[in-house]
């Protein structure tokens, strides 16, 4: 990495030439690509807007969170989870694993730098990545210039806050799920949880555990599956069945088994989509909920299920069925979005929704040295698969260029670059 400051010059920002790729994001995806590159001796720079690695896990998730898939599906390339970890590691254990991962592979991101724009310069065939320092009161800009750009800023970079009539007039607390830590402070309170994905379901359970009175909004339909079927992870079972059977058949098997374990969820106001859980995930990216106890609380009446919202008033919410509920607080478990369209000036590879246009398994590589890691809607397993493919591809390009340079420069004039 070579850098120079030009505070008084025409660009007024620090300029950094990067040998190898710039990786945007130090979450699991960015770390996994970094580790794979490190092993092959390829230099890189990781840029992270936060002041720590895995900021989603460290700063924007609730206390009781555990990985919801077995650990064998969640470990990153080249380092297994410690043997003593349980089948479903806690958030704390996962963060400890990632800290150890970064240390083992000597990954040192540029913290507190947020990528504001990244653009391919056709004239010089290089990426120009501009960051703004997010540390302290004075903002400084840096421009990184590189041949390859790995986008690893995450599918869940920003919390989605929907516009709902009257929400601004509601006088109680309104937070997004990313800012929810625990139900402790909600004891005795009536809390409306908007959304019934994995976040909405688990936050409702947490609120109920802390003696709050949650009402969960289910405006459309959702597949709720048990986390385990006959002692085996449902995900593991589905993966195994998919090796032999078509998707529609696996969907039907899962739904029949689910019916035996969870009963008819429709009885409790949770309609099932017409497409099966895996088909829906594959075609529309909608994740099924893996139940870890919420359904039991719905059955017992500790968690109320309500339909769509019409509007909020000062201290209440009106539902589309005409019912009005008095509420103290609102938690928006309304999902997340990618922030790629806000900073990446490229429209061929990435779509408007901030995901690669090409579906899995081919959405990891664009043109001109552009890569996407962790946009497969397949969680940590998808991030690992991307990292391996991306690092192998970069290594190929890197080695080819290195050989090319060696052939061009007489051996007595070769210099060793530092990074
Ligand atoms: C509540 C919750 C629970 C989850 N549980 C699971 C689970 O159990 N199993 C599973 O497989 N998946 C789970 N997921 C999905 C999860 O997103 C991934 O597993 C994993 O975090 C993806 O890693 P990532 O590195 O791609 O994205 P992230 O973890 O989001 O990391 C992206 C990083 O990029 C940084 N960044 C973003 N924009 C910029 C920018 N412009 N400039 C600089 N840095 C930037 C962010 O600060 C962040 O640190 C969960 C998601 C949520 C929200
Ligand atoms: N490890 C874990 O246990 C765990 C925990 C939490 C999250 N996660 C993962 O994190 C990712 C995000 O999950 P998520 O649950 O936060 O988001 P999500 O799956 O996108 O769910 C968002 C929910 O909000 C609802 N919604 C959005 N706008 C609404 C509105 N205006 N009114 C009413 N409802 C509205 C959606 O309903 P519609 O379906 O009708 O649009 C949906 O139910 C997923 O990949 C998930 O698996 C994992």
UniProtKB/TrEMBL annotation:
<keyword id="KW-0285">Flavoprotein</keyword>
<keyword id="KW-0503">Monooxygenase</keyword>
<keyword id="KW-1133">Transmembrane helix</keyword>
<dbReference type="Pfam" id="PF00743">
    <property type="entry name" value="FMO-like"/>
</dbReference>
<dbReference type="InterPro" id="IPR020946">
    <property type="entry name" value="Flavin_mOase-like"/>
</dbReference>
<keyword id="KW-0812">Transmembrane</keyword>
<dbReference type="InterPro" id="IPR036188">
    <property type="entry name" value="FAD/NAD-bd_sf"/>
</dbReference>
<feature type="transmembrane region" description="Helical">
    <location>
        <begin position="244"/>
        <end position="262"/>
    </location>
</feature>
<keyword id="KW-0073">Auxin biosynthesis</keyword>
<keyword id="KW-0560">Oxidoreductase</keyword>
<dbReference type="InterPro" id="IPR050982">
    <property type="entry name" value="Auxin_biosynth/cation_transpt"/>
</dbReference>
<comment type="similarity">
    <text>Belongs to the FMO family.</text>
</comment>
<keyword id="KW-0521">NADP</keyword>
<comment type="pathway">
    <text>Plant hormone metabolism; auxin biosynthesis.</text>
</comment>
<dbReference type="GO" id="GO:0004497">
    <property type="term" value="F:monooxygenase activity"/>
</dbReference>
<keyword id="KW-0274">FAD</keyword>
<keyword id="KW-0472">Membrane</keyword>
<protein>
    <recommendedName>
        <fullName>Flavin-containing monooxygenase</fullName>
        <ecNumber>1.-.-.-</ecNumber>
    </recommendedName>
</protein>
């Amino acid at each position: 990495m070579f850098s120079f400051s030009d505070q008084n010059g025409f660009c007024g920002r620090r300029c950094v030439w990067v040998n190898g790729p710039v990786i945007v994001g130090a979450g699991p995806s960015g770390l996994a690509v970094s580790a794979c590159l490190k092993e092959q001796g390829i230099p890189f720079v990781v840029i992270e807007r936060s002041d720590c690695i895995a900021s989603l896990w460290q700063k924007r998730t609730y206390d009781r969170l555990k990985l919801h898939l077995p650990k064998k599906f969640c470990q990153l390339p080249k380092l297994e989870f410690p043997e003593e970890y349980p089948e479903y590691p806690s958030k704390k254990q996962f963060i400890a694993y990632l800290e150890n991962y970064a240390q083992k592979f000597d990954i040192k991101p540029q913290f507190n730098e947020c990528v504001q724009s990244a653009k391919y310069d056709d004239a010089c065939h290089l990426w120009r990545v501009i960051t703004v320092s997010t540390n302290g009161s004075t903002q400084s800009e840096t421009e990184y210039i590189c041949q390859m750009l790995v986008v690893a800023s995450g599918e869940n970079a920003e919390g989605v806050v929907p516009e709902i009539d009257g929400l601004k007039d509601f006088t109680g607390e309104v937070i997004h799920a990313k800012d929810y830590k625990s139900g402790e402070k909600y004891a005795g309170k009536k809390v409306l949880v908007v959304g019934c994905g994995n976040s909405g379901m688990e936050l409702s359970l947490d609120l109920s555990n802390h003696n709050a009175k949650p009402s969960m909004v289910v405006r459309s339909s959702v597949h709720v599956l048990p986390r385990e079927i006959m002692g085996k992870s449902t995900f593991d079972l589905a993966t195994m069945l998919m090796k032999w059977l078509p998707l529609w058949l696996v969907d039907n098997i899962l739904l029949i088994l689910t019916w035996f374990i969870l009963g008819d969820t429709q009885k409790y106001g949770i309609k099932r989509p017409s497409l099966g859980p895996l088909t829906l995930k594959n075609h529309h990216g909608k994740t099924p909920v893996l139940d870890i106890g919420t359904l039991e609380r719905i059955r017992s009446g500790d968690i109320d299920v309500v339909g769509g919202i019409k509007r909020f008033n000062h201290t209440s919410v009106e539902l589309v069925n005409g019912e009005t509920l008095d509420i103290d607080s609102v938690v928006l478990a309304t999902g997340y979005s990618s922030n790629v369209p806000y900073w990446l000036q490229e429209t061929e590879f990435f779509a408007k929704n901030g995901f690669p246009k090409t579906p899995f398994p081919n959405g990891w590589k664009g043109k001109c040295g552009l890569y996407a890691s962790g946009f497969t809607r397949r969680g940590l397993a998808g991030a690992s698969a991307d990292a391996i493919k991306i690092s192998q591809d970069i290594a190929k390009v890197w080695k080819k260029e290195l050989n090319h340079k060696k052939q061009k420069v007489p051996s007595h004039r070769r210099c060793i670059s530092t990074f």
